Fold this sequence. Notes:
By secondary structure, the protein is an alpha+beta fold. Helices cover 56% and strands 17% of the residues.
Amino acid sequence: MAILRADASKLKAAATRVFLAERDNVARQRDRYSSVLWEAIIAVFLILGCGIFIVARLLASLRSAAHAEDALRRDRDFSNLLLESSGDGVIAFDMDGRCTHWNSVMGGMFPAPCGSDVVGRLIQDAYRLPAGHVILNMMRDTLAGQSLHMPAHPIPTGGRYVEKFTYPVRSGKVIVGGILFIRDVTDAHLARMQLVEHRDQLETTVRERTRDLEESLERETRLRELYKGFVSMVSHQFRTPLSIVDSSAQRMIRRGKEMSEEEIRERAGKIRTAILRLTRLVSSTLNAVKLDAGEIDFAVRRCDLGNLIVEACERQRETTPDRRFRIELDQLPDWVSCDPLLIEQVVANLLSNAVKYSSPPDPIEIAANVDEQWIHIKVSDRGVGFPEDDHDNLFERFFRAKTAVGVEGTGIGLHVARTIARMHGGDVTAFARNGGGSTFVLRIPKEEALAA
Length: 452
């Protein structure tokens, strides 16, 4: 029993030790399991956190990608909108000359023979361009790095003008393609051409106005000089008959009753002739002034032109009784529509000229002839005539031919005569007479021509 109790005590101690060892082992395992479990829990949480982080980053990346895609799409759509709305034809091409963009404006301006499917095709094939075409040469130079501009030029069809621009497209420093702009500048070109035409017309107008102004200034200067000469000449012309009147009057005062009736008649005749010269000078000067001012009276009525011419010859004969007049007026109609006072002055001026520039006994010839529309009154003399180089200036105001030296006159009679004739729709012309002298022709329209 003692041995059993000792063995039992030993067994009890051993069991206690086994229990304690097992308990320690279980505690250690539990601690180990707890540590592993916490590690697992921590790992799970770490994995879950990483997963959440990765998912969040993935979602953020997807959102950024979506935003970037939307922005890229918007940029692409905006770029397409800009290219479509620019009004210029646009073709983009790559390094092989293949079309990467082709807007509708280009299609409207230059429809491709193959249809609308141009993108992705070689531009040379899409438009069937021959080798060496200007577009292909521009594309080649553009892909070599040049920016080119072709000024406005006509296109073969449509009557339009276009400008062409090409620019290389770069990615960094590397050329990846090019872009071609074709701009329709028809309106601008036509406006520019019109502007050039208007400018040329304006320059022509300015030159013409400048020339007219210079001619006006020259005429004004010449007229001023003529007026100076006219004043000097008129003063001399007035002085001569006044001197005759004065000397004849003084002689009559000095001699008084001693003068015979014949001498008195002679002196009175000289006074009367001088007064008639003064009257003609004053009348010519006043008529010239009235014509310049447009104040001369012009009243057309029917009159006997033949009788008017005969009376003018009679009045001329009173002042120059030694002159003969040969008159042939058989062809004149019975009545002529004109201003008789003005036409009488024209005839008187022509007769006075013929008398002054010719000498007796040569007659003054007055003849009339009529055609379908005109009445021609010719006044001819056999006097000094006029030089041929003076012909164009005979009817200029104050002009006197070289052969008029020493002959009284103001140089306005022929000017007044032509002006009055043209007021009637006719004219006065002059030409040298065969055998010497000159012929002046008054031309006025017949009454039937005026009515027509």
